């Protein structure tokens, strides 16, 4: 049943998304923001290059329209971190600086923004900052399986804290044994 709900209701093309898009038809900026986040989720579900281009372009437009749209900024920061992973030297440093600016620590209640900060620290190999952000995320979102899964993987791979990583991953799986593919 959980798999059916995750597939038919909660995914980026499911009933919840469609209802929200219908509600936001009257507010083009809100529709753009929500649509951009759903394209980004679809990209992270498939890693299709065309969806990545669409998501990044859309998120850049959303951030241009509203610089205080922290969810769009966070999603864009994560995409910029992905760009940085494929680069080196000054180009990598510039991309990480841009991602860090997009994911400024202004809204601790926004899990995507905090995950973007975690992604920047992970890409920089900054285990100390990563541990601090991870600790804050675990305290703020102890029942968010997506956050827990991301924190767990980075604690192991970047900080080398495999016992804590496995504990956090086990909690994520206990909360949601059939997670969405993103």
Compose a concise summary of this entry.
Helices cover 75% and strands 0% of the residues. The protein is mainly α.
Percentage of residues assigned to helices: over 70%
What's the total count of β strands? 0
Shape: globular
User: Overall pLDDT, averaged?
Assistant: 87
Q: Radius of gyration, Cα only, in angstroms?
A: 16 Å
Order of helices and strands: HHHHHHHHHH
Query: Helical stretch count?
Result: 10
Residue fraction in strands: under 5%
Poorly predicted regions: none
Sheet having the most strands: none
Oligomer: single chain
The chain-level structural class is mainly alpha
Write up what this structure looks like.
The mean pLDDT is about 85. Helix 9 runs antiparallel to helix 10 (about 160-175). The longest helix has 19 residues, at about 30-45. About 75% of the residues lie in helices and about 0% in strands. The protein has helices at about 1-10, 15-25, 30-45, 50-65, 70-85, 90-100, 110-125, 125-140, 145-155, 160-175. It is mainly alpha-helical and about 180 residues long. The radius of gyration is 16 Å and the shape is globular.
